[in-house]
Amino acid sequence: MKNLFLFLFLVLSSAAFAGANGLPAGDKIPTTEKEFVATINGFDKDKIVEQFGEPSKKDDLGTTKEGKVPASIWQYHYLNTDANGAYYQTTELDFVDDKVVMVVFMNNDGEEIPVDAVKEPVATAPEPEL
Q1: pLDDT in tens, 40-57
Q2: Residue 8 lies inside a defined structural domain of this protein
Q3: What's the CATH code of the domain at 81?
Q4: Mean pLDDT of the chain
Q5: For 55, which DSSP code?
Q6: How many independent structural domains does the chain possess?
Q7: Which domain holds residue 83?
Q8: Measured between alpha carbons, how far is 35 from 72 in angstroms, rounded to an integer?
Q9: Which of 43, 96, 48 is nearest to 69 (CA)?
């Protein structure tokens, strides 16, 4: 009886963990902003490329001795929608070890300098005389 209880507990708890990201395994990645952010970290790069194709821009950051890329930044265009259904021009996915760790939605192409960006270096206070 004890073994049967343990078996049922393990089976039911593993099923609960499998759906912990809100989606059963194998489902499509949602594209509305809140659902996307809530679930994207449950998918690896292969699944993301399978659904959305290759990103329009990809920056790999460093390589290990084994030739692996520890971090990368991908950009997709017109992938996600806001609460009103309007598309963000760019979605940036930041990866560490093939898992998404940050999502950024932008209303620019990710290349241009925003109008309100500081274009001149910020003046620093002069060093005190000794």
Answers
A1: 998 999 999 999 999 999
A2: no
A3: 3.30.1450
A4: 77
A5: -
A6: 1
A7: 29-106
A8: 22
A9: 96
